[in-house]
């Protein structure tokens, strides 16, 4: 389980951010939902960039 989390933590965090944005949209706070909708993509892009910089 620890290996799974250490490998897929960016996807898990991005999924939680997506659920947060959807929850805001459903509750009616559309401005905050649109703002936070960009977080999952940004998290995944930073994860890709960091993994490309690793040497091991």
Task: Give short descriptive properties of this protein.
86% helix; mainly alpha; 0% strand; 56 residues
Task: Give me the number of helical elements.
Answer: 3
The poorly predicted ranges are none
Q: What distance lies between the first and last C-alpha atoms, to the nearest angstrom?
A: 21 Å
Assembly state of the chains shown: single chain
Question: Helical proportion?
Answer: over 70%
The tally of beta strands, per DSSP, is 0
Content of β-strand: under 5%
Largest sheet: none
Cα gyration radius (Å): 14 Å
- What is the global morphology? elongated
Number of domains: 1
* H and E order: HHH
Mean pLDDT: 92
Category from helices, strands and their pairing:
mainly alpha
Can you describe what's shown?
The chain has 56 residues and is mainly α. 86% of the residues lie in helices and 0% in strands. It has helices spanning 2-27, 30-36, 39-53. The radius of gyration is 14 Å and the shape is elongated.
């Amino acid at each position: 389980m620890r290996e799974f989390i250490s490998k897929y933590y960016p996807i898990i965090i991005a999924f939680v951010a997506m659920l947060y944005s959807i929850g805001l949209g459903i509750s009616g706070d559309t401005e905050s939902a649109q703002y936070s909708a960009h977080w999952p993509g940004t998290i995944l892009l930073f994860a890709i960039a960091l993994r490309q910089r690793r040497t091991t």
